[in-house]
Amino acid sequence: MAGSGLKRRRRRRIHLSKLYTLTCTQAFFKQDHSQIGGPGYSRLVIINEPDSPEADSSSYSDNYVRTTKYTLATFLPKSLFEQFRRVANFYFLVTGVLSFTPLAPYTAASAIFPLLFVIGATMVKEGVEDWRRNKQDIEVNNRRVKVHRGDGNFDSKEWKTLSVGDIVKVEKNQFFPADLVLLSSSYEDAICYVETMNLDGETNLKVKQGLEVTSSLREDFNFKGFEAFVKCEDPNANLYSFVGTMELKGTKYPLSPQQLLLRDSKLRNTEFIFGAVIFTGHDTKVIQNSTDPPSKRSMIERKMDKIIYLMFFMVVLMSFIGSVIFGVTTRDDFKDGVVKRWYLRPDSSSIFFDPKRAHVAAFYHFLTAAMLYSYFIPISLYVSIEIVKVLQSIFINQDIHMYYEEANKPARARTSNLNEELGQVDTILSDKTGTLTCNSMEFIKCSVAGTAYGRGVTEVEMAMGRRKGSPLVLQSDDVEYNKEPFAEEAKVKGFNFRDERIMNGNWVTEPHADVIQKFLRLLAVCHTVIPEGDEDTEKISYEAESPDEAAFVIAARELGFEFYNRTQTSISVRELDLVTGKRVERLYKVLNVLEFNSTRKRMSVIVQDEDGKLLLLCKGADKLSKNGREFEVETRDHVNEYADAGLRTLILAYRELDEKEYKDFSVRISEAKSSVSADRESLIEEVTEKVEKDLILLGATAVEDKLQNGVPDCIDKLAQAGIKIWVLTGDKMETAINIGFASSLLRQDMKQIIINLETPEIHSLEKTGEKDAIAKASKENVLLQIINGKAQLKYAGGNSDAFALIIDGKSLAYALDDDIKHIFLELAVGCASVICCRSSPKQKALVTRLVKSGNGKTTLAIGDGANDVGMLQEADIGVGISGVEGMQAVMSSDIAIAQFRYLERLLLVHGHWCYRRISTMICYFFYKNITFGFTLFLYEAYTTFSSTPAYNDWFLSLYNVCFSSLPVIALGVFDQDVSARYCLKFPLLYQEGVQNVLFSWRRILGWMFNGFYSAVIIFFLCKSSLEPQALNHQGKTPGKEILGGTMYTCIVWVVNLQMALAISYFTLIQHIVIWGSILVWYLFMTVYGELPSEISTSAYRVFVEALAPSLSYWVITLFVVVSTLLPYFIYSAVQMRFFPMYHGMIQWLRYEGQCNDPEYCDMVRQRSIRPTTVGFTARLEAKKRSVRRSEPES
């Protein structure tokens, strides 16, 4: 019998109507149903007649979905608009347009080419990214589904061809192509199982059921001639509501969310369904919900905008100064018939040098100078940074150390905009379940009839043992143990329970064996689990809505109560008979399932056993009868102990129902569930509350959500790096505190500031029920506790005391009020650890917003579930854990990783490198452009601001594009101040990013100053060296072309060698691009100079005939380059030797071969371990300090 049940692999067409109490009996229309046909409820769908005139008149969208940013028609205008929204690009556009006027100091082509190159490169990048999105759209839109063609036959068609009113047949493990109304399924009562992971991130299966009137349409030919009309709500984004009616053969039937199958959900455990298309394309609820993620920009990028504005100011200032001087000089050019600047021919000038209109000439000079000095602004800055960030993201994605082999999941940087922000994180806000823990539940302990069972030791208990010096836990100051008891036995996933008193059938000899039997039977029967048998191994696996529920069923099986089959209205269990002592097969008729919800926090089933008894079995019971409290005191004590051990607990109880009571309940629950009114849920809850009472206590369960591997080590390293860690969890306070100890967020010597509303005053007010009085008193109480906490911090002063703030959700609601939140933040920032318990998703997002806006520093949120989405989007950086709770968090995140422990490498290694690279890269960009641009200003000043550029037009244009761009990109991708090993060995190095020392205004202005003095040295040394002497043996003196070519050569050498001095880690690629850029300059000067003079203009054969043959050119180049770089070299050497930054100390440590000297390394590392730090390293240091304090006393 069992074997045949397994071999059929659940393909029976079972009735589950009564199981889920969703049978659509007589329709119950409430007054709210009159909304149909009114505003917001005007949609009319003619089913199975999509080509009818009425259907054609409805202007519903087609089923083609587009997620791309551009179309072929809009790409050019929209992309150009995006590019010229940037101030720098708009500035270059204006100067490019002005280059076509006589005002331009250079040719139009030389001005337009770099702009076209940069804009074109960025547009190509945008186009490629959008093309990838378009490929995904094409793949989705071209998926195929079976569609009724009108004669009882179904043809396979593409999703994009679907129309409203079509009838489709979706088969097992396929996605729904549109929003459908469920008509029928492979099950007789139109039940189907749906996975909504793509919608809400939940992996548990949802049960949907079609109307009873359409449930018989289970064959293709049944739809020949089928006609129906649906009137329903208009398209909206609410995933959990649907109001409508179906008119079939003159009768109207109410439609609810129970009949709605949403696009991108997947059909599971059901062979097929038939559905009618209601919403298509962009009208579907999932697309209505697909809002663009919030636009996030890094702190460095925002600061870079300010530097651009500063550079604009400098350009305007220099242009203004030059124009004033030029105007005054022009006015005095022609006096008493004497011409001072005769070579400018002011006597024949129309306007530019006309002494009679000097003020107009000065204004025109201002425009010309603003165009000439545009080279102060690095035109290739934005595109270079985008290229670098994309390449950095590739390195993050390819990092083998962040690849989770078990799940085949690498790290994924879903946006490259925030790479450098990873190196500046000040506060991490973390979810607990599934993020710090595995969200893989294990049944480990239980309490039955007042007796505690289970000898397993949890990770929290081991941490508690270490705190208390328990002999049960191996003691060591430098090793973290994760001892698994009974490791030699084969372990069953979800079951880590060991107790010889109750295992192997020994429970029958226990004093309360009858209670234990009922307890185990409840575990085997009270659930919505679906068993799946394997034909080959004949083993049963379970498909459960949650990890907890799977753990309960597995525990029941391992303890002798094996749930093995589910039929249309029954559950089959193999259990040990208490009387005969033999295993028997028992059938329980399932009448109702009262599903779990967050309000009731319990789940019940009503079953009828083989003796005809009606039983209500409840998990999460809290309403016990007077006669059912026999073991209450002992059970409550055990539950508190389990919570202290970090376990999740549930109370188990039952009661017997009489037939009259059940019949009344059945009628009322059917009415409530058939209601289409707004208060449907409250009606259902009211009915269930009346039946879930007077329960008899059996015991309690305790399951462990184990910490992920490496969590304590990761937290320890992040704490040493100076990063604050907050935990925002929905768990109760005791569980959260103990997980805090296990993960080293808390330690024994920490002073805990606990804020909650569990006070006699509040409890007495709650009994009166006056909401306003309760709210006022609660708010005052929370404020008082926060003020007292701040007083404790202030009293501690500079002492080495570490504080931990722990606050529950009820108190947090008041702490986040506008008039309290900043005081609360001050208290929280002063604590080493912050744990917010019983937090709702909205509270998580609000806390994240408060931290982000309150201290102005970078925040990172990390979570794995749909309830973490708000927090991830609110934070500066959102990191999604691609765990077992679906992909909603990952899809809303900026970066996805598979395990919390990878956060250590992501931040301390990649974050630090990216921050350093981008910071240095931007500073260098402005340095090289100031060096180049200021020589233009100096030369113009030398020529009395006559708007004459020092260099050939194409020399100007190609400086940023060809001769100085690749080395800076190579720095942004490859440079490392220290290796990954040293980043992890000395975590305090990360503080360089948190404190922003590498991109402070002091450092930025220092690089700018470097550019200014480099320009001054280059200009004056070149001018002075060339001015008094002949250039060659023929006695020719240098002209503008010679001076310009020499200065340009020196600039190319200086900026590239400056890059070589700034680099800490040379690779072959960096050698190639640095020396290659210099070589390209010489090749360009040679080739360009050989072109006809009409093209090469002032550069015609200058290098071949004048510069290259001259020894003085090479000597001047060498002398000027060394002189220019010498100040920076001396400054860097002195700083490195006598005033090293933290990365400099580590470089010295490695250079002097002391990286393996424990004493020296410990001395360097001690700077990162402060009394207010969390983590097990800080805990050991605290223990050492305690010992040192006690020594004098002894």
TrEMBL record:
Gene3D superfamilies: Calcium-transporting ATPase, cytoplasmic domain N, Calcium-transporting ATPase, cytoplasmic transduction domain A, HAD superfamily/HAD-like. Residues 47-110 form the P-type ATPase N-terminal domain. It catalyses: ATP + H2O + phospholipidSide 1 = ADP + phosphate + phospholipidSide 2. Keywords: ATP-binding, Magnesium, Membrane, Metal-binding, Nucleotide-binding, Translocase, Transmembrane, Transmembrane helix. The chain crosses the membrane at residues 87-105, 111-128, 307-328, 362-383, 925-942, 954-974, 1004-1026, 1046-1065, 1072-1091, 1111-1131. It is a multi-pass membrane protein. This is Phospholipid-transporting ATPase. It comes from Brassica cretica.
